Amino acid sequence: MLNVVFFGTPDFAKASLEAIFNSHHQVVGVVTAPDKASGRGMKLTPSPVKVFAEEKKLNLFQPEKLKNPEFLSAIQNLNADVFVVVAFRMMPQVLFSIPRLGTFNLHASLLPDYRGAAPINYAVINGETKTGVTTFFINEKIDEGSILLQAEADILPEDNAGTLHDKLMKIGAELVIKTLDGLADNSIQERPQPAKENPKTAYKIFKEDLRIDWNQSAETVHNFVRGMAPNPTAFTILKVGDEEKSLKIFKGRFEIKSHSREPGDFDISKNEFKFYTKDGIYYPEDVQMQGKKRLPVKDFLNGIQNFEEYKK
Question: What fold characterizes domain 3-184?
């Protein structure tokens, strides 16, 4: 049995914390982000990890600064064997070097590919059919420490970033327990990440990265929509009357088909909505017009009074 301090914030992390809590290992402390103002009323909202920790009456910390001497001293006094990090922020060496067995992180890719903040999104965007999760020891460089264990997962054609997130969350929680068990009985051989000339990257996604580029192939557009769904969501801009409005696209289908239209042109009527790409056509199936509700495309089209107002 190992004494564990857990670091994490979102649902993806909560699944691993819950798995550790339900295992024979002991959670001696939980560190999560300070409550964040969110929603219309900008009320302070606790993280999913905090909600679980409070529910189970676990020892909880929410430091603003990870180098705060009082926080570091309190964590040191917990005498943890190991720290487990899942979907948290960058940790300073003064913190991750505290436990005797080290600090390991769960990352949602098969490292060294997809280091960075958005590995799930980019695996889908790039049309991968396989990905996975990795546990590795944290060092000073982001996502570059020695690998402990890995587990693979298939990406199905119908998967998007949301369904893949849920799949990897479950597999990841199982891998965290296997890693703790292996460290406890000294059966894991850590190994350096394989040297790879150009590992695929997964940089943080910003708003300007979400716009669909219709000059790409229909399949590339399709994978881009899948990889951004349901969040942060791909969008395009339509002219409605004299106004430019964004249209979020959550789902669709594509076909490769030669045509004489410009990429980005679209046809919209009561019966169909389609965009032209460089080598085919993309049909949105689930959309949300700026300021409106998310709707199946059929309902969206039924709500339009004047189709002639819609222009490129």
Answer: Rossmann fold (3.40.50)
